[in-house]
Amino acid sequence: MRAVPHQNERKLEAIERAKGEGMSKDLAKQYNVNRVTLYRWVKNESAIRSAKPSKTYAKNTKRAPPVTFQAMEKQLFEWVKVMRRNK
C-alpha cells in the first residue's frame, strides 16, 4: 500500500523546525521521511510556499513525449517481459 504523501503545510512546518533546530535524523524520523527528503524540502522551500497548503506537491510534472516508434516500443515491452520471466 502506498504511503500518504505529505501536504505542503506539514512540509513547511518541517522546514521551519529544520532551520531552527538544524537538520537531523531525529527530525526526519518525527516527520516519517528520510533525511534526504527533508533536505530536498528545504531546498524547494520557495516552490512549496507558493503552492496551496493543502496540496501534496509543489510543482507540475511533465509527461513523457509521445511514442514515435510504436512497433519498436511494443517489441521492447515484449522483450522486457520475456527477460523478467527468464530471470
TrEMBL record:
The protein's matches in Pfam families, at most eight in alphabetical order, are given as: CENP-B_N
- Provenance organism: Phytophthora fragariae
Q: What is this protein called?
A: HTH psq-type domain-containing protein
* Coiled-coil regions listed: none
Top-level taxon in the UniProt lineage: Eukaryota
Domain HTH psq-type span(s) in chain numbering: 11-49
Instruction: Tell me which InterPro entries the record gives.
Output: Homeodomain-like_sf, HTH_Psq, WH-like_DNA-bd_sf
GO molecular function annotation: DNA binding
